[in-house]
Amino acid sequence: MIRLLITGASGYIGGEILAQMSDDPHKYGTIEVFAVYRKEEHGEAIRKMGSTPVKLDLSDGDAIKSFILEKQIDVVLELTDPVGSKIAIPSIEALSTLGGERTFIYTSGGKLFSAFADFDTLKETKDDDEDVINTLRNSNSEWIGAKIAKESYPLILETGKKLHVHTHIVVPPMVYGKSRTFGNQLSKQIVELVKIAKTTGKLWTIPQTQPSLGSLAQIWALCHIHDCASGYLALLDSILANKYAPDGIYFEENGKFAWEELSKGILRGLGLEEKMDVAGQEEMVRIADILGTEVEGVAVQMSGRANLKGNRLKSIGWHPKYDVEHLYSTMEDEARFIASQL
Questions:
Q1: Are 70 and 60 in contact (CB under 8 A)?
Q2: CA 112 to chain CA centroid, nearest Å
Q3: Per-residue exposure over 185-207, b if at least 16 CB sit within 10 Å of its own CB, e if not
Q4: Disulfide check for 252: which of 81, 169, 223, 268 has CB 3.0–4.6 Å away?
Q5: What does each C-alpha distance from 247 to 39, 151, 185, 312 come to in angstroms?
Q6: What is residue 34's three-state secondary structure?
Q7: Using alpha carbons only, how large is the chain's radius of gyration in Å?
Q8: Which of 123, 34, 134 is nearest to 76 (CA)?
Q9: Helix axis angle, 259-269 relative to 324-341, nearest 10°?
Q10: Sign of torsion, CA 23 244 64 113?
Q11: Quick one: three-class SS letters along 94-110?
Q12: Which residues does residue 174 pair with via DSSP β-bridges, in sequence order?
């Protein structure tokens, strides 16, 4: 029996992973799942899905190690810290202590491999390119996320290699669709855009923060929540089959969308005019206030270029179903649903 520890089990991605596992008891019924949660009401929901709810202080490295050692965990699926290594390193160290074939799966985000992190988006960034991690390591970006990840990501992969723990960094880009989680069912990025549109009656084109990109379209890689969860399960399937996937970066990409087209779909869904102006300083301040961030953080949250190409998950059997046409065709309905929840 494989023992799996999953953090962020009640989150947007984690809950959908648990739902898909419960859909297929024949395949995943032999896995003992320990699911970390925070809210008391989520504990019972985890039990109903066939998993064991766990209260674990993820800020305490020793507590993480102790739990992994006590429960003889085989796989750690970490969904809560997309930038740092404070959960990753203790987990890898504990898995190594147990010995044998152990796996650590980390969750990143598309922003860490985008123009915001100093990646050249005039060409595709491919996850099977061995230079991907070195490009991040050598980033000169002033964005705090990139500054942290350029240190933590190489450290995570190198620690896994040194301690003989299979180590993967999964990179969901812009994820959309309704999750079947018992916690947060909605994509944060889409929610933010809907919140702005509902509050102001408008959406704006955000100026490029990288002058070298000029007037190039702001595009981003996409992945539906169903496909996102099944990407993680493709890695888990390889473990069940004793065909361990190679270490490294895995982009969950199934096409690319334009921020402007996405925004227009939201505006149509809310019955608003599709005309989009370029945001000036006054508009940027207003948007920042709605998002609860600094003006400098607006572009990172709702614009930019991430020209990602994911080959590695597909090479081990991942078959995503939903592409950019699906995103565009469902955005009006999704915007209306989100607006009804705000």
A1: no
A2: 11
A3: bbbebbbbbbbbbbeeebbbebe
A4: 223
A5: 33, 18, 30, 10
A6: strand
A7: 20
A8: 34
A9: 40
A10: negative
A11: HHHHHCCCCEEEEECCH
A12: 222
The pTM score is 0.94
Query: pLDDT by residue for the chain (342 residues), tens digit each?
Result: 899 999 999 899 999 999 999 999 999 999 999 999 988 888 888 998 889 999 999 999 999 999 999 999 999 999 999 999 999 999 999 999 999 999 999 999 999 999 999 999 989 999 999 899 999 999 999 999 999 999 999 999 999 999 999 999 999 999 999 999 988 888 888 999 999 999 999 999 988 666 555 556 789 999 999 999 999 999 999 999 999 999 999 999 999 999 999 999 999 999 999 999 999 999 999 999 999 999 988 988 888 999 999 999 999 999 999 999 999 999 999 999 999 988
Sheet holding 219-224: strands in order across? Answer: 174-176, 219-224, 256-258
Residue 17 Cα distances to 11, 88, 167, 322, angstroms: 10, 20, 19, 17
Taking the CA atoms of 266, 271, 273 and 279 in sequence, report the sign of the dihedral they define.
Answer: negative
Nearest to 15 by CA among 41, 42, 40: 42
Task: Give every CB contact of residue 256 below 8 A, 6+ residues apart in sequence.
Answer: 219, 220, 221, 222, 307, 308, 324
Angle at 150 between CA 305 and CA 226, to 5 degrees: 55
96-135 burial code (b ≥16 CB/10 A, e <16): beeeeebbbbbbbbbbbbbbbbbbebeeebbbeeeebbeb
Tokens standing for residue 99: 């010995």
Q: Which CATH class is domain 2-186+221-254?
A: alpha beta
Within 13 Å, how many C-alpha atoms sit on residue 290's CB side?
23
Q: 34 vs 49, 206, 311, CA distance in Å?
A: 11, 42, 30
